[in-house]
Amino acid sequence: MVFQGEVLSVGALLDVARTTPETAQNTRVGLRHTAAQNAAACRTMLAIDEPLDACWRFGILQTLDDYTSSSRRGGPDLAAGVFTDEPPRTGSVEVDAAFAALAEHLAERDGWPTPAWASDPSRRTTAWYPSVPAIFHADADQESPEAFRRRGILITSRSLSRA
């Protein structure tokens, strides 16, 4: 099959994007995944000896992606629901602390109440650098968001960046 459409320049594509009306948020679609579900999956991963960094990538970054997707569909009120149910303990104090840090960080950033479970003092660790190579530890010491730093999770400014 031969392409029969019009090839637009980058500038023309940007113009189309600027002039296309935004679609209404779809609040009829509820949450697809929650922090509690992702924590349960991390617990299973750790039980079969997956490394903590795998739980960071799957559990924490996946939860961030779930939150972002929910926020785009239904705004911060829907997205906050990702953290309504307390994530079960994973068997790793580091990962448990990271779930609490992520909940507080996003709540403060987006203006919704931090869930009570995220303030549990047992959800803390000391100096965990998830997926941060040693060469960047000094950066993480300085750049880690406050909600993460207070819980002993030290990350760089790029650690929560998503494509």
Task: Explain what the structure shows.
By secondary structure, the chain is mainly α. Helices cover 50% and strands 0% of the residues. The chain has 6 helices and no strands. Helix 3 (52-80) packs parallel to helix 4 (93-110). The chain is globular and about 60 Å long. The model has no long low-confidence stretch (mean pLDDT 90).
Q: How many H/I helical runs? A: 6
Stretches with pLDDT under 50, minimum 5 residues: none
Structural class, from helix and strand content?
mainly alpha
- Rg from Cα: 19 Å
**DSSP strand tally:** 0
Give the termini distance in whole angstroms. Answer: 31 Å
Reading the helices and strands in chain order gives HHHHHH
Oligomeric description of these chains: single chain
Mean pLDDT: 90
User: How would you sum up the major sheet?
Assistant: none
Strand content: under 5%
Helix content: 40-55%
Shape: globular
Features:
163 residues, 50% helix, 6 helices, mainly alpha, globular
Short description:
This protein is mainly α.
List the helices and strands and how they pair.
Elements: H1 10-19, H2 35-47, H3 52-80, H4 93-110, H5 137-143, H6 146-149
Helix pairs in contact: 2-3, 3-4
